[in-house]
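I keep forgetting this: the sequence line spells out the residues, with the fold written below as integer tokens. I include a record here:
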Amino acid sequence: MTLLRETGGVQWAAMTLAFLVAVGLGHTGDLGVTTMLMLLAVVLLGVVPQARKGWAWSLAVAAALGGAAQALLPYAASSLPVWAAVVAIWLGAWMLVAQLSDRPRLSGALGRVQGLLAPLAFGATLLWLWEVTVRALEVPRVILPAPSLIWARILRSTDILWVDFVQTFVKGALSGYAIGVGAALVFALLVDRSDFLRRGLLPVGNFLAALPIIGTAPIMVMWFGFDWPSKAAVVVAMVFFPVLVNTVQGLAATDAMQRDLMRTYNASWGQSLIKLRLPAAMPFIFNGLKIASTLALIGAIVAEFFGSPTRGMGFRISTEVGRLQLDMVWAEIAVAALAGSLFYGVIALVERGVTFWHPSQRAR
């Protein structure tokens, strides 16, 4: 019972049961000796609760689970022993993620690296489940290619993926993001100074922000042409109002006592803005910037569906779907997801440096 009360103890018990089922139903020809030995090692590592508190335990479990997962792939087939082993590996990974998440956070750079371990382990587990399920069920490539096929396609098509990345992300998404964010910040200051704009522009902005992208994208293509300026225009329209609304809300976040204190100092509107209201608005502004970072890439890709040169992520996705080259489609999706995640991560890092004083940052 002590084992079950430990972090990951329930997962370890269920993994042990699944391992015994796999061993009882199969033999070495069904799973392979390496898979069985590695799973047995994970089961034995979980017996001693005190050992789970050390990093050496986590490293050993990760290595054993990785070895078992790799060794099982050649034996992937739709059989009960294989599925029992798959469940055992998945439960073992769950136990590892639970342990990594429960560890006290280290200080400094090691703490930031530690925060990435659990998501990386979870993501690797999902990719492995995808791979083994596609192989075991013999899913056709035109329906869902395996991650290994997608990775092989990425390695073969780096030149095409780079050209598409530059066209869509650098030219379309980033340029539109910069223009839209800059315009939103300027308009937010104007709205803050004018009651007329606050009462008249924001309701109209909320209406325009609700317009569907599939309706506005063809219009932008007709106005600005088939190259990246039309995609940037779509991105501007998508990111402008989220940043505007968050900035206006942030500028109004200071309380009456703080504003009265600035007036007692005879501070002008500009001095009050720079010294008090703009710093207080930074958490709201960065919230809008992070929302806009995800919308920017989505807008640029979708806009390319309605007309673009013979390059770009959206163009490639729509073209390769018609050719049933789903591995290339998923390669483009993987590059877009990686670019969007890194873009969001950069903004989050800047936010942490700028708003280090905010409780949401101090708690991390």
The chain has a mean pLDDT of 82. The radius of gyration is 26 Å.
